[in-house]
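thought: fold this chain, then report.
action: predict
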Amino acid sequence: MLWEKIKPYLTERGWTSYRLAKESGLATSLIYNLEHGKNRNTSFDTMCKIADALDVSLDEFR
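observation:
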């Protein structure tokens, strides 16, 4: 699941899912759905925004 790959980066930075939403410019509801496994088809654009916010490569989410 994607969230399992994102979570360590949040922990490392001391960020909450709310902070990720703000830093990535994504809706908090979208981040909530990712966190709770309700969004299984994450768009490429969303993945790019999350990777940019976390300052990591998209490869980290493989």
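thought: worth noting. The mean pLDDT is 95.
final: tokens above.
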